[in-house]
Amino acid sequence: MRRFRVPTEEEIKEGLGTDAYFVRTEEILKGLDDHTQVTMELMTKRFPDKNYSFGIVAGLFEVAKLLEGLPIDVDAMDEGEFFFLEEPVLKIRGEYREFARYETSILGFMCSYSGIASKAIRVRIAAGDKSVLSFGTRRQHPFVSPVIEYSTYIAGFDGVSNVIGAKYIGKTAIGTMPHALILVLGDNKRAFKAFDEFVDERVPRICLIDTSGSPIRELEDALEILGDKLDGVRVDSGDLKRTCKELKWFLELKGRKDVEIYLSGGLDEYSVMKLRDVADGFGVGTKIADADVIDFALKIIEVNGKPRAKFGNYPGRKVVLRNNRFEDIVTLERSNVPSGYRNLLKPLIRNGKIVREEESVDVVRERVKNNLNKLPEYLKDILHETPSPVKFIPEI
Fold first, then answer.
1. Is residue 214 situated within a structural domain?
2. pLDDT, tens digit (0-9, with 9 covering 90-100), for 278-314
3. Which of 60, 191, 214, 369 falls between 20 and 30 A from 296, CA-CA?
4. Cβ of 215: how many Cβ atoms within 10 Å?
5. What is the pTM of this model?
Protein backbone atom coordinates (compact mmCIF):
# COMPACT_ATOMS: atom_id res chain seq x y z
CA MET A 1 0.00 0.00 0.00
CA ARG A 2 1.37 3.40 -1.00
CA ARG A 3 1.60 5.93 1.84
CA PHE A 4 0.61 8.96 -0.21
CA ARG A 5 -1.69 9.49 -3.16
CA VAL A 6 1.05 10.39 -5.63
CA PRO A 7 1.84 8.68 -8.94
CA THR A 8 5.25 7.20 -9.62
CA GLU A 9 7.44 8.53 -12.42
CA GLU A 10 6.85 5.27 -14.25
CA GLU A 11 3.07 5.66 -14.08
CA ILE A 12 3.30 9.18 -15.50
CA LYS A 13 5.69 8.02 -18.23
CA GLU A 14 3.27 5.23 -19.18
CA GLY A 15 0.59 7.82 -19.79
CA LEU A 16 -1.65 6.69 -16.94
CA GLY A 17 -2.18 10.25 -15.77
CA THR A 18 -4.63 10.76 -18.60
CA ASP A 19 -8.32 11.35 -19.15
CA ALA A 20 -10.31 8.26 -20.06
CA TYR A 21 -11.55 9.65 -23.35
CA PHE A 22 -8.00 9.70 -24.72
CA VAL A 23 -7.73 6.00 -23.93
CA ARG A 24 -11.05 5.45 -25.76
CA THR A 25 -9.71 7.43 -28.72
CA GLU A 26 -6.57 5.30 -28.75
CA GLU A 27 -8.66 2.10 -28.73
CA ILE A 28 -10.83 3.33 -31.62
CA LEU A 29 -7.89 4.40 -33.80
CA LYS A 30 -6.12 1.10 -33.20
CA GLY A 31 -9.34 -0.77 -34.01
CA LEU A 32 -9.63 1.14 -37.29
CA ASP A 33 -5.90 0.69 -37.98
CA ASP A 34 -5.83 4.46 -38.40
CA HIS A 35 -2.40 6.08 -38.81
CA THR A 36 -3.45 9.69 -39.26
CA GLN A 37 -0.59 12.17 -38.89
CA VAL A 38 -1.31 15.44 -37.11
CA THR A 39 0.37 18.60 -35.93
CA MET A 40 -0.81 20.00 -32.60
CA GLU A 41 0.05 23.36 -31.08
CA LEU A 42 -0.01 24.46 -27.45
CA MET A 43 -1.30 27.99 -26.86
CA THR A 44 -3.67 30.03 -24.71
CA LYS A 45 -6.41 32.48 -25.64
CA ARG A 46 -6.68 34.02 -22.17
CA PHE A 47 -4.53 34.87 -19.18
CA PRO A 48 -5.67 34.51 -15.54
CA ASP A 49 -6.02 38.29 -15.18
CA LYS A 50 -6.85 40.84 -17.88
CA ASN A 51 -3.82 42.85 -16.73
CA TYR A 52 -1.39 40.10 -17.73
CA SER A 53 0.47 41.15 -20.86
CA PHE A 54 2.71 38.07 -21.16
CA GLY A 55 3.48 34.69 -19.62
CA ILE A 56 6.61 32.62 -18.98
CA VAL A 57 7.14 29.25 -20.66
CA ALA A 58 8.04 26.69 -17.97
CA GLY A 59 7.91 22.91 -17.61
CA LEU A 60 9.25 22.09 -21.08
CA PHE A 61 11.79 19.49 -20.07
CA GLU A 62 9.31 17.51 -18.05
CA VAL A 63 7.23 17.39 -21.24
CA ALA A 64 10.33 16.36 -23.20
CA LYS A 65 11.06 13.51 -20.79
CA LEU A 66 7.42 12.46 -20.91
CA LEU A 67 7.45 12.21 -24.71
CA GLU A 68 10.99 10.88 -25.12
CA GLY A 69 11.04 7.61 -27.06
CA LEU A 70 7.81 8.20 -28.97
CA PRO A 71 8.03 8.39 -32.81
CA ILE A 72 7.25 12.12 -32.91
CA ASP A 73 8.88 15.51 -33.46
CA VAL A 74 8.49 18.41 -31.05
CA ASP A 75 9.42 22.07 -31.48
CA ALA A 76 9.20 24.51 -28.59
CA MET A 77 10.20 27.91 -27.28
CA ASP A 78 13.07 28.03 -24.81
CA GLU A 79 12.40 27.43 -21.14
CA GLY A 80 11.93 30.86 -19.58
CA GLU A 81 10.88 32.53 -22.84
CA PHE A 82 8.09 35.10 -22.72
CA PHE A 83 4.93 34.39 -24.73
CA PHE A 84 1.79 36.30 -25.66
CA LEU A 85 -1.83 35.31 -26.22
CA GLU A 86 -2.54 32.76 -28.97
CA GLU A 87 1.13 32.19 -29.77
CA PRO A 88 2.07 28.52 -30.07
CA VAL A 89 4.73 27.78 -27.47
CA LEU A 90 5.10 24.12 -28.44
CA LYS A 91 4.07 21.95 -31.40
CA ILE A 92 3.99 18.18 -31.84
CA ARG A 93 4.03 16.27 -35.13
CA GLY A 94 3.35 12.57 -35.40
CA GLU A 95 0.79 9.80 -35.58
CA TYR A 96 -2.00 10.92 -33.29
CA ARG A 97 -2.66 7.55 -31.67
CA GLU A 98 1.01 7.40 -30.60
CA PHE A 99 0.74 10.38 -28.26
CA ALA A 100 -2.96 11.14 -27.68
CA ARG A 101 -2.97 9.81 -24.12
CA TYR A 102 -0.18 12.19 -23.10
CA GLU A 103 -2.19 15.38 -23.67
CA THR A 104 -3.45 15.51 -20.08
CA SER A 105 0.05 15.33 -18.60
CA ILE A 106 1.51 17.76 -21.15
CA LEU A 107 -1.10 20.31 -20.15
CA GLY A 108 -0.62 19.55 -16.47
CA PHE A 109 3.11 20.22 -16.65
CA MET A 110 2.87 23.37 -18.75
CA CYS A 111 -0.22 24.94 -17.21
CA SER A 112 1.02 24.54 -13.65
CA TYR A 113 4.67 25.52 -14.09
CA SER A 114 3.88 28.45 -16.39
CA GLY A 115 1.02 29.66 -14.20
CA ILE A 116 3.22 29.94 -11.11
CA ALA A 117 6.15 31.46 -13.00
CA SER A 118 3.92 34.00 -14.76
CA LYS A 119 2.33 35.11 -11.49
CA ALA A 120 5.72 35.24 -9.80
CA ILE A 121 7.26 37.56 -12.36
CA ARG A 122 4.38 39.99 -11.85
CA VAL A 123 5.31 40.08 -8.16
CA ARG A 124 8.96 40.50 -9.14
CA ILE A 125 8.04 43.52 -11.29
CA ALA A 126 5.85 44.96 -8.52
CA ALA A 127 8.65 44.68 -5.93
CA GLY A 128 11.14 46.65 -8.00
CA ASP A 129 14.58 46.31 -6.41
CA LYS A 130 13.21 44.94 -3.12
CA SER A 131 13.83 41.35 -2.02
CA VAL A 132 11.12 38.75 -2.67
CA LEU A 133 11.03 35.30 -1.07
CA SER A 134 8.80 32.31 -1.87
CA PHE A 135 6.78 31.30 1.22
CA GLY A 136 3.83 29.41 -0.25
CA THR A 137 4.44 25.68 -0.45
CA ARG A 138 2.31 24.99 2.64
CA ARG A 139 -0.73 25.89 0.51
CA GLN A 140 -0.21 22.96 -1.86
CA HIS A 141 0.37 19.21 -1.74
CA PRO A 142 4.02 18.51 -0.79
CA PHE A 143 4.42 16.71 -4.13
CA VAL A 144 4.18 20.13 -5.83
CA SER A 145 6.83 21.88 -3.70
CA PRO A 146 9.69 21.49 -6.23
CA VAL A 147 7.46 22.89 -8.99
CA ILE A 148 6.58 25.96 -6.92
CA GLU A 149 10.13 26.72 -5.88
CA TYR A 150 11.58 26.16 -9.36
CA SER A 151 8.95 28.39 -10.95
CA THR A 152 9.38 31.23 -8.46
CA TYR A 153 13.15 31.08 -8.63
CA ILE A 154 13.41 31.29 -12.42
CA ALA A 155 10.98 34.22 -12.29
CA GLY A 156 13.47 36.17 -10.17
CA PHE A 157 12.57 35.49 -6.53
CA ASP A 158 15.60 35.93 -4.29
CA GLY A 159 15.07 32.78 -2.25
CA VAL A 160 12.73 29.88 -1.51
CA SER A 161 11.62 28.52 1.85
CA ASN A 162 10.84 24.86 1.17
CA VAL A 163 13.65 22.42 1.98
CA ILE A 164 12.87 19.75 -0.62
CA GLY A 165 11.90 22.38 -3.18
CA ALA A 166 15.24 24.13 -2.70
CA LYS A 167 17.09 20.82 -2.94
CA TYR A 168 15.59 20.10 -6.36
CA ILE A 169 16.94 23.38 -7.74
CA GLY A 170 20.31 23.07 -6.06
CA LYS A 171 19.76 25.89 -3.58
CA THR A 172 19.64 26.29 0.21
CA ALA A 173 16.24 27.01 1.73
CA ILE A 174 15.86 30.34 3.52
CA GLY A 175 13.88 31.05 6.70
CA THR A 176 14.26 32.17 10.29
CA MET A 177 11.50 31.62 12.86
CA PRO A 178 7.74 30.96 12.98
CA HIS A 179 5.21 32.22 15.51
CA ALA A 180 5.15 28.67 16.84
CA LEU A 181 8.70 28.94 18.21
CA ILE A 182 7.81 32.04 20.21
CA LEU A 183 4.58 30.51 21.51
CA VAL A 184 6.27 27.22 22.46
CA LEU A 185 9.02 29.01 24.39
CA GLY A 186 6.49 31.41 25.85
CA ASP A 187 8.55 34.58 25.58
CA ASN A 188 9.86 36.76 22.74
CA LYS A 189 13.19 37.42 24.37
CA ARG A 190 13.80 33.77 25.12
CA ALA A 191 12.98 32.83 21.51
CA PHE A 192 15.22 35.53 20.04
CA LYS A 193 18.10 34.54 22.31
CA ALA A 194 17.72 30.81 21.55
CA PHE A 195 17.58 31.52 17.82
CA ASP A 196 20.86 33.42 18.01
CA GLU A 197 22.45 30.76 20.19
CA PHE A 198 21.56 27.63 18.22
CA VAL A 199 21.02 28.64 14.57
CA ASP A 200 23.94 28.76 12.14
CA GLU A 201 25.50 32.21 12.23
CA ARG A 202 25.29 32.41 8.44
CA VAL A 203 21.48 32.64 8.72
CA PRO A 204 20.39 36.30 8.92
CA ARG A 205 19.11 37.36 12.34
CA ILE A 206 15.56 38.31 11.32
CA CYS A 207 13.02 38.26 14.13
CA LEU A 208 9.26 37.81 13.80
CA ILE A 209 7.72 40.64 15.83
CA ASP A 210 3.92 40.41 15.71
CA THR A 211 3.16 37.40 17.89
CA SER A 212 1.59 39.22 20.83
CA GLY A 213 0.12 42.07 18.80
CA SER A 214 2.66 44.83 19.53
CA PRO A 215 5.38 44.93 16.86
CA ILE A 216 7.05 47.98 18.42
CA ARG A 217 7.40 46.28 21.81
CA GLU A 218 8.70 43.09 20.21
CA LEU A 219 11.14 45.11 18.11
CA GLU A 220 12.45 46.59 21.35
CA ASP A 221 12.90 43.03 22.68
CA ALA A 222 14.81 42.03 19.53
CA LEU A 223 17.10 45.05 19.78
CA GLU A 224 17.74 44.36 23.45
CA ILE A 225 18.63 40.71 22.91
CA LEU A 226 20.50 40.85 19.59
CA GLY A 227 21.84 44.39 19.56
CA ASP A 228 24.06 45.04 16.53
CA LYS A 229 23.51 41.46 15.32
CA LEU A 230 19.85 42.15 14.46
CA ASP A 231 19.62 42.16 10.66
CA GLY A 232 15.91 42.60 10.25
CA VAL A 233 12.37 42.01 11.46
CA ARG A 234 9.30 40.49 9.85
CA VAL A 235 5.63 41.41 10.27
CA ASP A 236 2.97 39.00 9.07
CA SER A 237 -0.36 40.59 10.02
CA GLY A 238 -2.34 43.76 10.65
CA ASP A 239 -2.14 47.03 8.74
CA LEU A 240 1.21 46.33 7.14
CA LYS A 241 1.81 49.77 5.67
CA ARG A 242 0.99 51.61 8.89
CA THR A 243 3.03 49.20 10.99
CA CYS A 244 5.98 49.45 8.65
CA LYS A 245 6.00 53.24 8.84
CA GLU A 246 5.87 53.13 12.64
CA LEU A 247 8.73 50.63 12.78
CA LYS A 248 10.89 52.75 10.49
CA TRP A 249 10.20 55.81 12.67
CA PHE A 250 11.18 53.88 15.80
CA LEU A 251 14.33 52.45 14.20
CA GLU A 252 15.44 55.86 13.06
CA LEU A 253 14.99 57.23 16.59
CA LYS A 254 17.15 54.36 17.85
CA GLY A 255 19.82 55.00 15.22
CA ARG A 256 19.19 51.59 13.61
CA LYS A 257 18.22 52.41 10.05
CA ASP A 258 20.30 49.37 9.09
CA VAL A 259 17.58 46.98 10.39
CA GLU A 260 15.47 45.84 7.44
CA ILE A 261 11.71 45.30 7.55
CA TYR A 262 10.13 42.32 5.77
CA LEU A 263 6.41 41.93 5.20
CA SER A 264 4.36 38.80 4.56
CA GLY A 265 0.79 37.58 4.86
CA GLY A 266 -1.57 37.26 1.88
CA LEU A 267 0.50 39.41 -0.47
CA ASP A 268 0.23 39.53 -4.27
CA GLU A 269 1.58 41.83 -6.98
CA TYR A 270 -0.99 44.52 -6.24
CA SER A 271 -0.33 44.71 -2.49
CA VAL A 272 3.43 44.44 -3.00
CA MET A 273 3.31 47.45 -5.31
CA LYS A 274 1.50 49.46 -2.64
CA LEU A 275 4.03 48.46 0.02
CA ARG A 276 7.35 48.54 -1.81
CA ASP A 277 8.10 52.14 -0.85
CA VAL A 278 8.02 51.35 2.88
CA ALA A 279 9.33 47.75 3.08
CA ASP A 280 12.75 46.25 2.40
CA GLY A 281 11.50 42.85 1.32
CA PHE A 282 8.54 40.52 1.00
CA GLY A 283 7.59 36.93 1.67
CA VAL A 284 4.90 35.97 -0.84
CA GLY A 285 3.12 32.67 -0.37
CA THR A 286 -0.48 31.69 -0.99
CA LYS A 287 -1.11 33.91 -4.02
CA ILE A 288 1.90 32.37 -5.78
CA ALA A 289 1.60 28.73 -4.76
CA ASP A 290 -2.12 28.86 -5.51
CA ALA A 291 -1.68 30.91 -8.69
CA ASP A 292 -4.20 30.37 -11.46
CA VAL A 293 -2.81 28.11 -14.16
CA ILE A 294 -2.13 29.31 -17.65
CA ASP A 295 -5.14 28.00 -19.57
CA PHE A 296 -3.15 26.28 -22.30
CA ALA A 297 -4.92 24.14 -24.88
CA LEU A 298 -3.32 21.57 -27.20
CA LYS A 299 -5.08 21.91 -30.55
CA ILE A 300 -4.86 20.00 -33.83
CA ILE A 301 -4.05 22.50 -36.59
CA GLU A 302 -2.94 20.13 -39.38
CA VAL A 303 -4.07 16.65 -40.47
CA ASN A 304 -2.02 14.57 -42.92
CA GLY A 305 -0.16 17.67 -44.04
CA LYS A 306 -3.26 19.80 -44.68
CA PRO A 307 -4.48 22.70 -42.51
CA ARG A 308 -7.44 21.63 -40.34
CA ALA A 309 -8.58 23.04 -37.00
CA LYS A 310 -11.53 23.39 -34.69
CA PHE A 311 -13.62 26.50 -35.24
CA GLY A 312 -12.00 29.52 -33.59
CA ASN A 313 -8.41 28.36 -34.07
CA TYR A 314 -5.87 29.29 -36.74
CA PRO A 315 -5.24 26.22 -38.96
CA GLY A 316 -1.84 25.43 -40.42
CA ARG A 317 1.62 24.78 -39.01
CA LYS A 318 3.05 28.04 -37.66
CA VAL A 319 6.19 29.74 -36.43
CA VAL A 320 6.60 32.62 -33.96
CA LEU A 321 8.98 35.34 -35.09
CA ARG A 322 10.31 37.98 -32.69
CA ASN A 323 12.50 41.05 -33.00
CA ASN A 324 14.38 42.85 -30.23
CA ARG A 325 11.35 45.06 -29.51
CA PHE A 326 9.09 42.06 -28.81
CA GLU A 327 7.01 42.83 -31.90
CA ASP A 328 6.00 39.26 -32.64
CA ILE A 329 4.67 37.81 -35.88
CA VAL A 330 2.79 34.49 -35.98
CA THR A 331 2.86 33.15 -39.52
CA LEU A 332 2.82 29.88 -41.46
CA GLU A 333 5.93 27.75 -41.29
CA ARG A 334 6.73 28.12 -44.98
CA SER A 335 7.07 31.91 -44.70
CA ASN A 336 10.38 33.76 -44.96
CA VAL A 337 11.94 35.14 -41.79
CA PRO A 338 12.29 38.92 -42.10
CA SER A 339 15.59 40.59 -41.24
CA GLY A 340 15.91 41.29 -37.53
CA TYR A 341 13.55 38.48 -36.50
CA ARG A 342 14.23 35.00 -35.09
CA ASN A 343 12.04 31.93 -34.86
CA LEU A 344 11.21 31.07 -31.24
CA LEU A 345 10.02 27.52 -32.00
CA LYS A 346 13.14 25.34 -32.12
CA PRO A 347 13.69 21.56 -32.23
CA LEU A 348 13.20 19.81 -28.89
CA ILE A 349 12.57 16.21 -29.97
CA ARG A 350 13.32 14.52 -33.29
CA ASN A 351 11.92 11.01 -33.85
CA GLY A 352 11.70 10.45 -30.11
CA LYS A 353 15.17 11.73 -29.22
CA ILE A 354 15.64 14.87 -27.13
CA VAL A 355 17.94 17.10 -29.18
CA ARG A 356 18.21 20.07 -26.84
CA GLU A 357 20.28 19.98 -23.64
CA GLU A 358 18.41 20.70 -20.43
CA GLU A 359 19.60 23.97 -18.93
CA SER A 360 20.36 24.69 -15.30
CA VAL A 361 17.91 26.67 -13.22
CA ASP A 362 20.36 29.59 -13.17
CA VAL A 363 20.63 29.70 -16.96
CA VAL A 364 16.83 29.79 -17.25
CA ARG A 365 16.65 32.44 -14.52
CA GLU A 366 19.15 34.58 -16.43
CA ARG A 367 17.08 34.24 -19.62
CA VAL A 368 14.00 35.46 -17.76
CA LYS A 369 15.98 38.38 -16.30
CA ASN A 370 17.37 39.35 -19.71
CA ASN A 371 13.92 39.16 -21.29
CA LEU A 372 12.51 41.38 -18.56
CA ASN A 373 15.27 43.93 -19.02
CA LYS A 374 14.57 44.10 -22.77
CA LEU A 375 10.78 44.08 -22.48
CA PRO A 376 9.16 47.40 -23.50
CA GLU A 377 7.96 49.36 -20.49
CA TYR A 378 4.30 49.27 -21.51
CA LEU A 379 4.35 45.47 -21.29
CA LYS A 380 5.62 45.68 -17.70
CA ASP A 381 2.49 47.53 -16.59
CA ILE A 382 0.88 45.12 -14.12
CA LEU A 383 -1.98 47.46 -13.19
CA HIS A 384 -3.63 48.00 -16.55
CA GLU A 385 -4.65 46.00 -19.60
CA THR A 386 -2.15 46.47 -22.44
CA PRO A 387 -2.48 45.85 -26.18
CA SER A 388 -0.95 42.66 -27.55
CA PRO A 389 2.26 43.17 -29.55
CA VAL A 390 1.50 40.15 -31.79
CA LYS A 391 0.48 40.23 -35.46
CA PHE A 392 -1.05 37.17 -37.13
CA ILE A 393 -0.07 37.09 -40.81
CA PRO A 394 -0.64 33.90 -42.88
CA GLU A 395 2.38 34.47 -45.12
CA ILE A 396 5.25 36.97 -45.27
1. yes
2. 999 999 999 999 999 999 999 999 999 999 999 999 9
3. 369
4. 24
5. 0.96
